[in-house]
Amino acid sequence: MKNQIKLFVIASICFVFSAITLKAQTAVYVCSTNGACGYCYGNSSVANCAYNKCIQEGGKTPLLVLSVARKGYGAIAVGRSATGAQIVGAAAGYQSQEEANRRALQECANRGGNNARISDTFLDR
Q1: Across the chain, what does the average pLDDT equal?
Q2: What is the pLDDT of residue 125?
Q3: Is-contact 83 63, C-beta < 8 A?
Q4: In terms of C-beta density within 10 A (0-12 exposed, 13-18 middle, 19 or more buried), how is residue 52 classed?
Q5: Does residue 65 have a pLDDT over 80?
Q6: In what order do the strands lie in the sheet with 114-124?
Q7: Is the pLDDT of residue 54 over 80?
Q8: pLDDT digits (tens, 9 = 90+) for 38-48
Q9: Does residue 124 contact residue 97 with C-beta atoms inside 8 Å?
Q10: Other C-beta atoms within 10 Å of 65: how many?
Q11: pLDDT tens per residue across span 98-125
Q12: Stated pTM of the model
């Protein structure tokens, strides 16, 4: 009986850890000097993936601007500051594409982006 309880506990722990690792995530990095952006979703190393994509897009000093651990719709919005610098707003984990778009546009405006537009959308299932 004790062996069965131990086996059950070990199996339960393994199940919990595997569920945690499979949990979807989204990460977005933006370069603070030139506005290059990289994002990833739906894999176990989204932060590294997004960072590397930002570098591939020409980013020199990527900063993490968004990291969520829930599935859903996402959007990237791009605008320009008063001096012409690219400003990025990001949203992820929303129940509809419209919600994600609105939030990304708002985030871009909050960071000083004018005339923002949605540059990319995605769905992490």
Answers
A1: 84
A2: 86
A3: no
A4: middle
A5: yes
A6: 86-94, 72-80, 114-124
A7: yes
A8: 999 988 899 99
A9: no
A10: 18
A11: 999 999 999 999 999 999 999 999 999 8
A12: 0.77
Residue 30 pairs in a beta bridge with 37, 63
Amino acid occupying residue 26: T
Question: Which residues touch 26 (CB under 8 Å, ≥6 apart)?
Answer: 39, 40, 41, 42, 46, 66, 67, 68, 74, 92, 93, 124
- CA-to-CA dists, residue 77 to 3, 18, 23, 90, angstroms: 55, 33, 25, 6
Asked if 77 and 117 touch (Cβ cutoff 8 Å), the reply is yes
The tokens for 116 are 């923002």
Extract the runs of DSSP E, i.e. beta strands, from the chain. Answer: 26-31, 37-41, 62-68, 72-80, 86-94, 114-124
- pLDDT digits 0-9 by tens, 3-24: 444 333 343 333 333 333 444 4
Q: Rounded to an integer, what distance in angstroms lies between the CA atom of residue 104 and that of residue 89? A: 5
Q: Is 109 helix (H, G, I), strand (E, B) or coil?
A: helix
Question: Closest by alpha carbon to 44, among 63, 62, 18?
Answer: 18
